[in-house]
């Protein structure tokens, strides 16, 4: 049977319905934002436009930080290097390729994936192209590197390792795809010796970084239901490696904590999420598919709090920021929740066309990339 791939332009409505219950039921509108007394204020320190932003397709073009430099790209192939403190442009280039997987940075390289299945690496210092290589299908997640290899996860669920210097293929790992998947992939986690990846089948795999040999594979969600839609358990949010624990969340499945060495499940809780988990302050945070934000004890999975004020607002993955948890939504609002109990403490509108990719928190600054192409840095006032 031919595999079907949902684009979220048409598919997200279906998925949100599935996350809230039966698709035969009337869809509820996004929760209206309630007024509250702000306890903290976010002040914008700079803003920079990055072309057309996410473009017309349901792209998730995530900026990347490497040291003091911030990199971002738009759907039409514009790539910009900026000073993270001031937003001043170091260089920018326009590639003749529509981008769908961006941005990875490290090892002196800026790495991008295209809608046409090419992997492109640029020199971090000036944006000059070093090499480009064709892979089996489109690249929807940022390529990642450990300084030796560049690892790409393709839409047909292959993992490909390329030599960082030449682009020559070192190894490839293939997995079986379900009939129906969400358009997108989690971003691989690449360490010096291992590569971790979440698959559309609801499995997490650990590979030897030197040769691609599987070290362990763990199913973190079991497909259930009669229809292919009900049986979707994609891992589309990013994986999170924190010390020796690997966290993953699936659609219509579970939030799990895995031992990174063995793949054994340390704990799991039922959850459905399109984004990956966040961690900080001894807690794990998750934006669920229905817009609920939850916090769990990092060691025992004990529920700590739940916030249901942002239901059906298509939230980004949560990010720990100072003493708060930051999420953004489909209308472009950036929300701050208290780490202790999940209450709303701050809000600012970033982009009227929405925010799809999670903010980046670093050194007291939140970097937020809106769908229209505006990239802004915020700090607590």
From TrEMBL:
Statement: the UniProt record of this protein carries the keyword Lipoprotein: yes
Membrane topology recorded in Swiss-Prot or TrEMBL: Lipid-anchor
PROSITE patterns with a match to the protein in the record: PROKAR_LIPOPROTEIN
InterPro entries in the cross-refs: BamB, PQQ_b-propeller_rpt, PQQ_rpt_dom, Quinoprotein_ADH-like_sf, WD40/YVTN_repeat-like_dom_sf
Signal peptide: 1-23
Entry-linked SUPFAM superfamilies: Quinoprotein alcohol dehydrogenase-like (SSF50998)
Domain Pyrrolo-quinoline quinone repeat, first and last residues per copy: 76-306
Localization per record: Cell outer membrane
Keywords: Cell outer membrane, Lipoprotein, Membrane, Palmitate, Signal
Pfam families, per the entry: PQQ_2
Role this protein plays: Part of the outer membrane protein assembly complex, which is involved in assembly and insertion of beta-barrel proteins into the outer membrane.
Quaternary structure (record): Part of the Bam complex.
Protein family: Belongs to the BamB family.
PANTHER family from the UniProt entry: CELL SURFACE PROTEIN, OUTER MEMBRANE PROTEIN ASSEMBLY FACTOR BAMB
Protein name: Outer membrane protein assembly factor BamB
Species, as recorded: Halopseudomonas pertucinogena
């Amino acid at each position: 049977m031919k595999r079907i791939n949902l684009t979220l332009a048409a598919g997200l409505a279906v998925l949100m319905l599935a996350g809230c219950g039966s698709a035969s039921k009337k869809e509820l509108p996004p929760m209206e934002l309630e007024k509250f007394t702000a306890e903290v204020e976010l002040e914008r320190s700079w803003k920079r436009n990055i072309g057309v932003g996410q473009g017309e397709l349901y792209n998730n073009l995530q900026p990347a930080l490497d040291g003091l430099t911030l990199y971002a790209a738009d759907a039409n192939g514009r790539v910009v290097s900026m000073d993270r403190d001031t937003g001043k442009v170091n260089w920018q280039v326009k590639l003749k390729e529509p981008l769908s997987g961006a941005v990875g940075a490290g090892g002196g390289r800026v790495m991008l994936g295209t809608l046409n299945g090419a992997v492109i690496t640029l020199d971090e210092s000036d944006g000059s192209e070093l090499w480009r290589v064709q892979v089996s299908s489109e690249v929807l997640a940022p390529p990642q590197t450990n300084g030796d290899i560049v690892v790409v996860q393709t839409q047909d669920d292959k993992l490909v390792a390329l030599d960082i210097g030449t682009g020559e293929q070192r190894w490839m790992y293939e997995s079986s795809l379900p009939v129906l998947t969400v358009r997108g992939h989690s971003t691989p986690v690449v360490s010096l010796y291992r590569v971790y990846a979440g698959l559309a089948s609801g499995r997490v795999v650990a590979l030897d970084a030197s040769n691609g040999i599987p070290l362990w594979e763990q199913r973190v969600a079991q497909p259930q239901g009669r229809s292919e839609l009900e049986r979707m358990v994609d891992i589309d949010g990013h994986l999170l490696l924190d010390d020796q624990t690997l966290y993953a969340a699936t659609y219509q499945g579970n939030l799990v904590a895995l031992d990174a060495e063995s793949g054994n499940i340390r704990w799991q809780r039922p959850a459905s999420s399109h984004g990956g988990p966040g961690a900080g302050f001894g807690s794990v945070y998750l934006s669920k598919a229905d817009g609920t934000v939850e916090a769990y004890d990092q060691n025992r999975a004990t529920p700590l709090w739940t916030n249901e004020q942002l239901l059906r607002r298509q939230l980004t993955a949560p990010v720990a920021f100072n003493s708060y948890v930051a999420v953004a939504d489909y209308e472009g609002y950036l929300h701050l929740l208290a780490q202790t109990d999940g209450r709303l403490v701050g809000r600012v509108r970033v982009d009227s066309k929405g925010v799809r990719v999670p903010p980046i928190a670093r050194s007291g600054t939140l970097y937020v990339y809106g769908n229209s192409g505006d990239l802004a840095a915020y700090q607590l006032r």
